[in-house]
Design goal:
three-stranded parallel sheet; 84 residues
Length: 84
């Protein structure tokens, strides 16, 4: 399996194009990050991006990023509404 991570893009038409490009280049898998911001505002969008990945034959993994208080944030993640 040859895979890569894919994060930050939440415009479905761009993600579709990117997923097709990954598959054309021989990648067989993709890891999508899923943040609290995605859970709150982009749930449907993330569903479409995962579906687009599957549609071109990619195996999909999803990694929750910054979703729990004890997980350290990575750079660029928005602040939580409620801080512990």
């Amino acid at each position: 399996m040859a895979g890569t991570s894919y994060f930050g893009v939440r415009i479905v038409r761009h993600a579709r194009r990117d997923m097709a490009d990954l598959a054309t280049r021989g990648y067989t898998g993709v890891l999508h990050t899923y943040s609290e911001n995605d859970l709150e505002y982009y749930r449907g969008t993330m569903r479409e991006i995962v579906e687009a990945s599957h549609a071109v034959g990619l195996t999909v993994q999803v990694e929750p990023v910054g979703a729990r208080p004890h997980v350290r944030r990575r750079g660029g993640e928005p602040l939580r509404d409620v801080l512990p």
